[in-house]
Prior knowledge:
The complex is a heterodimer. Chain A contains eleven helices and 19 strands.
Amino acid sequence: MTESLYWNPVLESLSRADLKKLQLAKFKRQLHRMYEQSAFYREKLDQAGVHPDQIQTLADIRRIPVTTKEELQQLQSNSENFPYGPCLAVPTDRVATYHQTSGTTGKPIRQADSREDWEWWIECWATFLWAQGFRPNDRVFIPFSYGVFVAFWAGHYACEKIGCEVVAGGGLSTQDRLLKLQELEATAVLCTPTYGLHMAEVAEDMGLKLADFNVNKMVCAGEPGASIPATKNRLENYWGAKVFDHAGATEGGAWGFGCLKEPSDLHINEAFFLVEILDPDTGEPVDSGEEGELIITPLDRQAQPYLRFTLKDMALFSDEPCECGRTFARLKGGVLGRRDDLTKVRGVLFSPTSVEAVVRAVDQLGDEFQVVVEKKGVLDEITLKAELKENIQITPELETHLLQELRLTSGLRFNLELVPLGTLPRFEVKAKRFQDLRTHA
Amino acid sequence: MNRNDLKALDQELMEIREATERLKSLAIEHGMPAAEKNAERIMACVEMLSLHISDPLKLIEE
Ligand SMILES: [Zn+2]
């Protein structure tokens, strides 16, 4: 018997038509469950005049109003039913784990999961770790602070479920983590792309060459970096390993993954999630090859479920077959940026993440950068601050090249500040590289 | 894996589910938290097996 390439060969190779049937049936079951067990969703559906029995097709689902992060923040800010508020859809003695969002966009959301939900998280991670080649002979090092953020917790247990040997790399300095990685000859790492780059920089300072370590694969989560080709290339070069992206959120769950054949795209785990990709203006689904906003419904989550939750992420949808044989649809190039990160600079819609692709593709520049927008008189000024690698001098050619690339990507004329390596702030988890200093009236 | 293979897996799963439920009730009846809590843990895995096996079998009409 040859080893399966898929965690679940049945679900991962259903025909597109069967996948849609499965999603609709699971959505209906989940909607009934939510209507019966969650005071919040019952009220929301009643107010919208939608009863679960009226949802008979995938198109009917769009009659249900979306759920936003702000709504949940509001719900949990009342002291009623502390700490989860009326979002909770099971008795409190069924809650098995507590996590919370990082709160980068407002108050953190407190997240309850039951024992079954926690197994579900682990299944979602196991699906893509298996797709990325994680097997029982791997020794996986996980350098993250095991705390209230869900981050790599489920990844840890999914590795364990697959049968890998798991090393919890929390509670150590970056230097000590690197030495432990080297000592144990770990074969795989789970971390944010920012931390993967940071570790590479620290390794270099310590005189260590990561490419000589035993790590052959790395799964990045928390930020979109591993889908940005220039960032992925840097990580792969430093680590001498294959780098995969993963998409997930405390609220949505672990829903997207890069496969071995198309690691720069994200497959959507459509057996466990309904991810709608909608035109932000019309609210209608986009066609394959078009860009839209992601709305997610985890189809099996029970303690604190989400119904049409707006991720505010933009992505390019494709239902073209993938060489890996999975029939799950893909987001070409991963998540393209958060819709609420888009900001207008001199009247032009600008996405700060677009700068990352430019900076990381220029060999003379280090990994860190910052983008600052400020008001000078009546005009917006936008500046890229980037670090020059050691022994690199600023030349007019380098400046011209960078300014041209930035102009091409964003349509904006940038100012440049090239500073010595090590000048800009370092981040260990999620990076904050965009500063908007304009005061908005 | 064809539909009949999936049916065979589902049949085994139903038996595990029923046996685990019986185990849990007996554990409660006789006051043995060790058996009750381990049975609950098995049930969480049974739910996952159900997502992998029973759902594609039963929710997709032929
Ligand atoms: Zn694929």
